[in-house]
Amino acid sequence: MDKEKSLPRFTLRQLEYLVAVGETGSIARASERLNVSSPSISSAISHLEEELGISLFVRQHAQGLSITQGGRKVIDQARHVLKEAATIADIASDVSGTVRGPLAVGCLVTFAQLVLPRMRAGYEATYPDVRINQTELNQAEIFSALRRADIDIALTYDLDIPTDLHFTGLMRLRPFALLAAAHYYADKDEIGIEDLAALPMVLLDLPISTDYFLSLFETAKHRPHIAERTRDMAVMRSMVGNGFGYSIANVRPRSNVSPDGLPLACVPIAGPVRPLRMGLLTRKGRKSPEPSPLSWILPAPRSPRARLRPSAGSRCRDAVTGHTGPADRL
């Protein structure tokens, strides 16, 4: 009995906060990652230090927090404890036949506003015991977040997928030119890359995505006239609406109106241009025992596409129907 009383008392949640602070280097950044208030995280760290009887971090006002040697060992063990706790939860879900637990989902920032909320709403309505945390990222950030295990899965395009990650295609989307409604090409059935090359372009300038847009011209042996650059989809649409140039995209909102109220037109790009595949990205070797949250999203090996319960692919197609031209199933 005395031995049991001597055990330190802390929670898995406190260990989760500890690991987040150790990985981000500050309480403020850990707060952003976990969507938890800074005082709650600070209190958890203080409680752990008091229970363990050691300093886990050295507080440096100018440089944030530095992990002590003992703190580094505790954080490594905390990761192991959290991993084992997740395994226990998976076993319980498997036995009970329910889908439950946390699911961290990343989404490519260019279409997150169009697809992710609807997919998430349908998922949570079907599986209310799943706690979803969503993050909007560019392609390079998605790769890093998956490798760090900050996210479990991402919805993105098949752009420069590294060999240590696995992509499951859901649908294929052809590119289109976005023009001001008053543009002289706005009423055309399609437009060629050679025609676009002579026009000022508003480039959606995001890591890796930019390479795809420029490759459309390189393949056709043309060079675009880049007049403006922006990293924000809404800003890009408003610049096009105000006549600064055209842009290229693969998914568009239902409304052909820019954020500042100007009419837009979407014209398919002619010729054998490379479409993008929208799909799900995970780490290779990511195990997800049925029926964990990931098992609902990822197709089972050799399983038919048509499933009794809604798949991520069908939700994705539902979300972009009316947003793009024809979307081909994969």
Set down the secondary structure blueprint.
Blueprint (H helix, E strand, L loop, with lengths): L1 H4 L6 H13 L2 H8 L3 H15 L4 E4 L3 E4 L1 H28 L4 E8 L3 H15 L3 E8 L1 H9 L5 E5 L7 E9 L2 E5 L12 H5 L2 E5 L4 H11 L5 E6 L2 H9 L5 E3 L14 E5 L7 E8 L9 H5 L14 H9 L6 E3 L1
Parallel strand pairs: 3-4, 3-5, 8-9
Antiparallel strand pairs: 1-2, 5-12, 6-12, 6-13, 7-10, 7-11
Helix pairs in contact: 2-3, 2-4, 2-5, 6-12
* Total helical elements: 12
Number of strands: 13
Topology-level CATH name of the largest domain: D-Maltodextrin-Binding Protein, domain 2
Distance between the termini: 61 Å
SS strand fraction: 15-25%
Q: How many domains in all?
A: 3
Pairing-aware structural class of the strands and helices? Answer: alpha/beta
Would you identify the regions where 5 or more consecutive residues have pLDDT less than 50?
Answer: 287-292, 298-311
What is the N-to-C order of secondary-structure elements (H for helix, E for strand)? HHHHEEHEHEHEEEHEHEHEEEHHE
Largest sheet: 6 strands, mixed
What's the CATH architecture of the largest domain?
Answer: 3-Layer(aba) Sandwich
Name the average pLDDT. 82
Helix content, binned percent: 25-40%
**Radius of gyration over all CA atoms, rounded:** 24 Å
- Please write the CATH class name of the largest domain: Alpha Beta
Shape: elongated
Supply the CATH superfamily name of the largest domain. Answer: Periplasmic binding protein-like II
Strands of the biggest beta sheet: in what spatial order? 4-3-5-12-6-13
